[in-house]
Amino acid sequence: MSKDYIEVRGAEEHNLKDLDVRIPREEFTVVTGLSGSGKSSLAFDTVYAEGQRRYIESLSAYARNFLGQMDKPQVEAVEGLSPAISIDQKNAANNPRSTVGTVTELHDYLRLLYARIGTQYDPITGEEVGEQSAQDMVQQILELPEGTRAKIAAPVVRDQKGAFEDLFAELVADGYSRVEVDGEPVDLTLDDPELDKNYDHTIDVIVDRVRVSPDARSRITDSVETALEEAGGALKLIVPDPPADVPFASNTRSTGSLGEDAEGDDRLVVEFSEELGNPHSDFHFAEIETRSFSFNSPYGACPECEGIGSAKEVDEDLVVIDPDKPLKDVFEAWSYGRSYYRTRIDSVADHFGVSVETPWAELDEDVRRQFLYGTDGAVVFKRQTRNGTRRKEKRFEGVIPNLQRRHVETESQSTREHIEEYMSVTTCPACEGSRLKEQSRHVLVAGTSLDEINRLSIGDARRHFEGLEAELNERETTIATEILKEIRARLGFMEEVGLEYLTLDREASTLSGGESQRIRLATQVGSGLVGVLYVLDEPSIGLHQRDNDRLLNTLAGLRDLGNTLVVVEHDEETMRRADSVIDMGPGPGKRGGEVVAQGDFDDIVATDGSITGDYLAGRKEIPVPAERREPDGELVVTGARQHNLKDLDVPVPLATLTAITGVSGSGKSTLMHDVLYKALVREMNDNTSVDPGDHDSIEGIESIETVRLIDQSPIGRTPRSNPATYTDVFDHVRELFAETKLSKRRGYEKGRFSFNVKGGRCEECGGQGTVKIEMNFLSDVYVPCEQCGGARYNDETLDVTYKGATIADVLDMSVEEAYDFFESHQGLQRRLKLLKDVGLDYMELGQPSTTLSGGEAQRVKLAEELGKRATGDTLYLLDEPTTGLHKADERKLIDVLHRLVDGGNTVVVIEHELDLVKNADHVIDLGPEGGEGGGELVASGTPEAVARDDASHTGRYLRDLLPDVDIEGPRSDRRKPAKAASDD
Fold this sequence. Notes:
Helix content is about 35%, strand content about 20%. The protein is α/β, with parallel strands linked by helices.
């Protein structure tokens, strides 16, 4: 075999049919084809999976014991395989502590930069902070109230791995007997601490225990100097029982305050450093380290929000929703029917001389304030008991403080969840969302703090660091040169993949699958690896045509380093730039699994029988509608200001198909998700848990009956959920099996055929069909259950058949196979046809929802919506519904969307795919750029009107697809304008 190829022989994974294929090494190869034709089965489940399996097998037998057994893909041989890295569309992280800065490692370099050349300023006086002498520290210790007990400690080990036996021996030899290990006191004359060398430890040597008084100055001075010498200029003052009027400021902390279950303690730990201090201020400074700028460490995190940047607080607007209600009924969280609440409301109302029947809006503002936040004085509370009326005089704490307190104190999960219905997430008032403690926020590099850098977009941050050396002195430049080089390189890679609009402090959990994938791609580009096989899953998803070229340049750069790229993709531009294309087909599911065509772009175009080639050549196409619908009224969003939206007024025509377009980061999702959807849900469904984005109003709500968001979130979060259960197909299937003769003879009912309850399921795997193997430092792997072989059911249940098939066989059927199999069952056929209509013919009924792509999950939801009784006047909101679709399947989806609109509904889609955009009745184009350069309404109207607008990036690319627009677009030399609607 030539070393120029990765050769796959006899691949039979999923629907692959004994496939032989050669993938050129050190080239850029696109694997394309109809949805479900076997693209991912070849690229991910065969080539990449075999690479991962070989990596596991290369480890020692000891390591493999912890990882479990990975099944070999169903393939005869894969030769010429390089080390493989998969870059798919899984979200980067769900941890609220993960941000764009942390997942790209940019934050690590920024922390290093600020720790090495940052200048500390005093948060109180604003003065630059200089060195702090031992005498300064002594003076500050003596400011503690006389008689305060304190320990003077030398922090000799700070969060370092090791057992430290030698250190403990040296300390004993030097005469030290008392230490604190990880906050716990240890007497070295009695115990030899046994520490786990694989975990971080903190060791503080107790130099002296003192009682603060003027007479103790000499002793305290000696102890401070000794501690500074032992710890290299650092000192800890530990106050076990601090007085209430302790003078120290916000860099004080209790050990373990960021631990998930830690309760902390009441003592006070103050850190001093010879390097930092300000004699004109009472703020006490800790030593500046890289972890001082980490919001995931207690050394750098804001103590109020513990590095999250936000806090949950009771929201007045959620407690009082309808101010026209009478006082007794106005508090949503308090039921007047309960005696506890009735006593308080009645007593406070008597105190102010108002009736509980008075509408809330008619009360004086000061009275309303004291009801909500507590009375200024005492209130007489009266309560009827068997022995008469009991009176108690005390201050009323207020409805909102009462809810806040109970949320903290309650041990009842249901009570906590009930109170959280009236809470909203607000920016932490202490750190203003920066996540960092006060001292860290006042370290500047070239006059800019780290939290200011984190608020910049990637594009703005790159420009900030571009000429930073000009603002540094010679010493700072020498130290920072290599750090700045890495920072600029990473920011540049992020820009190259079209992510310049993301801010560094954006939570990773809010990123789309495409954005997460491009972040990992940028990280790989920065690694500079050579000789690697990269397998990517539709990296162009979520990218505007204008930004796609930069992404393709990045992929070409990876190839030019000497790597092999295998990219699953439907995008025409990506296929044109690829060195070779593998077209899978000829159909989806069981009708696929073969190579229809292989070669360069022109070879695919010239291949008869290639549906991909037909669309690329223009032999088949998605037609432009013969006419556009006229709207029947409109919804008007006014004053939208969320994120980067610039006080937008946007009309959304009703009874039409509307596409929201624009470059990445222009504000599309903010407008549709954060403003339009959330505002409608809160207004129409009285859903107080939803917090809409900032806007003035939405006019015309009375014209729609309901709103449905069909997004790309999973249809279920466990392998138990699947398309059959989500769409109710499985209910009908179980009823059919329960009606068979054998079921009736054995007394099996419908529940026997559920894999979610005991009885008919396999108990070894709990009806999941698979067993999870935790891979520790790799992603978890699911392997078939040995007991049932993946069938999910026990043998007795599998004895029952319908038309020769078991219930497990039905779950293994594709939608298309099931449609033919249940031809005599109209109810089932109708539901299965809906799945076919949205392009999911190939999908197995029992495919776990955890394995569905975002686009597939969205189309399953769409099919489920189509199955509901049509009422009209529904607003459907979809986010890039063409994700993962071939042109042929895209056409089916467009027909479904037109059906919804023809039924009297309104459909609004966020979309980059121009074949769908050209089918819209109305286009709302946002921009002109991403991030701060976006958020404006660039163009609005029919696709033809937008195409003629020179300010619209989307319009320029639309020109080539519209027969009625005679202006040339960027790709006018490649294809003829689409024809008006006609059948192929």
